[in-house]
Design a protein that fits this description.
Elements: H1 3-6, H2 12-28, H3 30-53, H4 90-95, H5 103-108, H6 113-116, E1 147-149, H7 151-161, E2 168-175, E3 181-188, E4 196-200, E5 203-207, H8 212-215, E6 218-224, E7 229-234, E8 238-241, E9 248-250
Parallel strand pairs: 1-6, 2-5
Antiparallel strand pairs: 2-3, 4-5, 6-7, 8-9
Organism: Cladophialophora carrionii CBS 160.54
Biased composition (Polar residues): 93-105
GO molecular function, one term: 2 iron, 2 sulfur cluster binding
Length: 251
């Protein structure tokens, strides 16, 4: 027997069967591949959990030899209150950055205590300007006459006043007649305290202060007919009047 028959020869069919055996072995143990994949997933999740749970703020403490600023560093040597204290951040202390004060605050606290406590002279009040001594013009308007007199009535009033003993005529009202009030004329020597003096064309007539409310705005006239001759009054204040015209009433 030759040597070629003792050494087995490797053919393509043997290689095919060997690969098929390896594939069947891998198919028969699927748990090994799944366990390897799940362990890799857990490893990734554990690394992510470490990243999420790590806090972003890392506490630190100042060194023991860190110089702290004095509490009265910003307070001047005066009793006047200065600006409000400002809070200092720890990062500014670490950088040792000098604080800059504004010019307004510096000017406000630059007064020393001795000068601030000195009394200041009080200025006397200035006298007010002298007002003008010119008299003001009166703005009073002439008051409307309480009663007017017609020219015919003036003629008869002059005849009554032309007497040796000069007297004055007073016009008033009295409670009389069916309507309540009636005109009344009388001679008087002098006017009363509150009588109204009416002067028209040189003729003076007095109006009784008690009758002024009833007579104001009236017109005095003279009426003469075959039966009588008398003074009449045209009064705009009359609300009721009797038929004969002797009495009237006002509201």
């Amino acid at each position: 027997m030759s040597a070629t028959h003792l050494i087995p020869s490797t053919t393509s069919s043997a290689t095919f069967f060997r690969a098929l055996a390896i594939a069947s072995t891998a198919r028969s143990c699927p748990h090994h591949a799944l366990r390897t994949f799940s362990s890799s997933i857990r490893a990734r999740q554990s690394t992510k959990r470490d990243l999420y749970t790590t806090p972003s703020y890392q506490p630190h403490s100042l060194p023991a030899d860190f110089p702290l600023p004095p509490r009265n560093a910003d307070v001047p040597d005066t009793s006047i209150a200065g600006p409000q204290p400002q809070l200092h951040d720890t990062t500014k202390h670490q950088q040792n950055a000098p604080q800059k004060t504004t010019s307004g605050e510096t000017a406000a606290i630059s007064v020393p205590e001795q000068e601030a406590q000195k009394p200041k002279p009080v200025q006397p009040p200035q006298p007010a300007e002298a007002k003008s001594t010119k008299p003001r013009r009166s703005k009073l308007r002439p008051r409307k006459a309480a009663m007017t007199i017609t020219p015919t009535a003036l003629i008869h009033l002059r005849e009554l006043l032309d007497q040796p003993n000069p007297k004055m005529i007073r016009v008033g009202v009295k409670n009389r007649g069916c309507s309540g009030l009636a005109y009344h004329l009388e001679y008087v020597d002098k006017p009363a305290a509150f009588d109204e003096v009416l002067e028209q064309d040189g003729v003076k007539v007095l109006i009784d202060s008690k009758a002024l409310f009833s007579i104001i705005g009236s017109e005095m006239d003279w009426q003469e007919d075959k039966l009588s001759a008398r003074f009449i009054f045209k009064n705009p204040n009359i609300t009721e009047q009797c038929g004969c015209g002797e009495s009237f009433s006002v509201s």
